[in-house]
Amino acid sequence: MNDPEVRLKEMLQKLRERRFRITPQRLAVLKILARSENHPSVDMIYEEVRRDFPTTSLATIYKTVTLLKELGQVLELGFPEGSNRFDGNEPSPHPHMICISCKKIVDPPLDSLSDLTSEAAQKTGFNIVTHRLDFFGICPECQGKN
Amino acid sequence: MNDPEVRLKEMLQKLRERRFRITPQRLAVLKILARSENHPSVDMIYEEVRRDFPTTSLATIYKTVTLLKELGQVLELGFPEGSNRFDGNEPSPHPHMICISCKKIVDPPLDSLSDLTSEAAQKTGFNIVTHRLDFFGICPECQGKN
DNA sequence: CTTCATGCAAAACATTTGCAGCTGG
DNA sequence: CCAGCTGCAAATGTTTTGCATGAAG
Predict the structure, then answer these.
(1) Domain segments of chain A: what residues?
(2) pTM, two decimal places
(3) A2 in helix, strand or coil?
């Protein structure tokens, strides 16, 4: 896991570079994303920010994560059947393990897909920009619960 | 590519096994999915079915693809930012190359991910049920168009 | 004939957008 | 100060659902 303090500084740096304002609401979102291991959804972030800033709106959370995504400071994992999840601690593409029971998302320690990516590019002629790899299954905790 | 005729027969077989009715609308959808190489969206299927059965509703297409998915006869590729795409010709999980410009989806000839899957399972303790691997980039045709 | 499928319209749901008023720098 | 942000509510777009009518077997 990356150092949350460092990640927070990097995020703030990117915002300042592009002359975006650091509002209390934004700072709260950044902090949550910088340290999160649990790949929060917009709703989870919203609930947490609300504890400190009860008037915050969902739209602001959406706007903030969208902005951070455009700055390359957060990785969005979109799901059609539910709300999207975000990784601000490690914003580069990497594989995810998703528990279909409790919806937990963890990062497996796997080697990169660079070989597979170049093979795919070479065989299809595509110019590959990014990728996404998700494994779906039952996490150890949920296996016990049956 | 699998033989569309064979795929169609397999699909019909599965429907009959479970005593689902073969309606003209369903048959039209099955045919499109069995032979499609282009991973059609519900809307694309809808437009095509409408040519033969102009009164068909979108809801019926949704119901049919959902049914086929439950029978394991179609693979759904869900996308949060747009409409989902379906592969009825090869319903098992496999990698996809997605053009971010023209939205075309093709199957690259890549070896399976079984090694990576077992490594991920072993390292995390997950019981892996399925997976999804997408590469996003620009297809050869769209590269020319700049 | 009886059960299941169709087609329509309304509902559901996450996300986006328009805009008036507020505020960071 | 004032450009850019917030918060509200309304809009969006895809997919789902309820229900009366129609057709498969």
Answers:
(1) 4-87, 96-145
(2) 0.94
(3) coil
Per CB-CB distance under 8 Å, the chain A contacts of B108 are 120, 123-124
Q: Which nucleotides of C are covered by protein (CB under 7 A)?
A: 4-10, 14-18, 23-25
| Interface test mutation site (partner A, options B104, B135, B141, B142, max chain A beta carbons within 10 A) | B135
Q: Which helix (H) or strand (E) holds B21?
A: none
pLDDT one-digit tens code per residue, B68-82: 999 999 999 999 988
pLDDT tens digits, one per residue of A77-110: 999 988 899 999 999 999 999 999 999 999 999 9
First and final CA of chain A: distance in angstroms? 30
Between CA A11 and CA B28 the distance in angstroms is: 51
| Fold agreement (A4-87, A96-145) | no
Tell me the pLDDT tens digit for each residue of B72-119: 999 999 999 888 999 999 999 999 999 999 999 999 999 878 899 999
Span B4-87: which CATH code? 1.10.10.10
Among the listed residues A53, A63, A73, the one whose alpha carbon sits nearest the alpha carbon of residue A12: A73
B100 CB contacts (<8 Å, ≥6 apart)? A129, B136, B137, B138
The CATH architecture one would assign to domain A96-145 is 2-Layer Sandwich (3.30)
